[in-house]
Amino acid sequence: MFKGSIVALISPFKDNKLDVESYVNLIHFHLKNGTNGLVPAGTTGESPTLNHDEHKKVIELCVKESNGRVPVIAGTGSNSTEEAISLTKHAESVGSNAALVVTPYYNKPTQEGLYQHYKAINDACGIPIIIYNIPPRSVIDMSVDTMARLFELKNIAGVKDATANLDRVDQQREKMGKDFIQLSGEDGTALEFNKRGGIGCISVTANAAPKLCSDFQKFSVSSNDNEKNEAEKLDKLLQPLHKSLFIESNPSPVKYAAKLLNLCSDEVRLPLVKVTEPTKEIIKKTLRSLNLI
Question: Which residues are catalytic?
Fold first, then answer.
């Protein structure tokens, strides 16, 4: 169920309030363009600045509007175990297919603390849990051994890996086997990630280029030589866009791209700010090169 191009949805704002109309249109834009899954309330969805009501609302809307056509993996992580449990329970109650739970940031728990955090969420809920391992943002790095312990629990299903270490894909596959779902957290290395045993990407770029990202993912896991070659071509085409969307802090660049695509405004919430003029020009250029605008 959890494979291919899974978009880390942006949360559109208007006058610092959640823009529900644009959000609903965005979901249908993805459904029309072949996106294989939706992640509301993740990092790209500016979850740190969503209040609890907004956090719950974007998940509820995502489940309702997708209407079972693609899986919804709700962002429910927190550095408070109690809060993560509460958000995961809510996601389950409204029909989310899985939860994406980031490693607790700021607290800097030990590996045992990480294990107990995820075990508590696992024990309190009944939907699959995808571990989100992102040391650059969380400071801590979940070890492969800790992940293997967690995979023994009933609801721990896989990982969104944003360690920037492709060797982890091999190590995790060797330790946990092919049933452990491995999703890339980095668009730029998604091709190599899939070659090593990954089955998809939770993508920022898919917000701006859903069809290209979906085709790329489909071809990258194909056994057909022609489709593999097509994946290589698409990867080269998409690389400049991947890079342009991370010149400044995510999701400011991708929100500007969405504005150029007439999907929503480029408004972000402090402490994030809109991208600078030089970055705007680069994003415009990359979108034009792909005939997206």
Answer: 132, 160
How far is residue 209's CA from residue 232's CA, in Å, rounded to a whole number?
Answer: 16
> What pLDDT score was predicted for residue 262?
98
Is residue 25 one of the residues assigned to a domain? Answer: yes
Range of the domain at 181: 4-223
Per-residue pLDDT tens digits for 5-25: 999 999 999 999 999 999 999
Would residue 265 count as lying in a domain? no
Q: Which residues pair with 281 in a beta bridge?
A: none
pTM: 0.97
In the chain, which residues have pLDDT < 70? none
Q: Which residue has the tokens 């020009």?
A: 281
The pLDDT, as a whole number, for residue 130 is 98
Specify the number of domains making up the chain.
1
User: Which two structure tokens, joined as six digits, stand for 143?
Assistant: 């070890």
Buried b vs exposed e over 276-291: b needs ≥16 C-beta within 10 Å?
A: eeebbebbeebbeeee
179 three-class SS: coil
Residue 198 lies in a domain: yes
CATH number of the CATH domain containing 62: 3.20.20.70
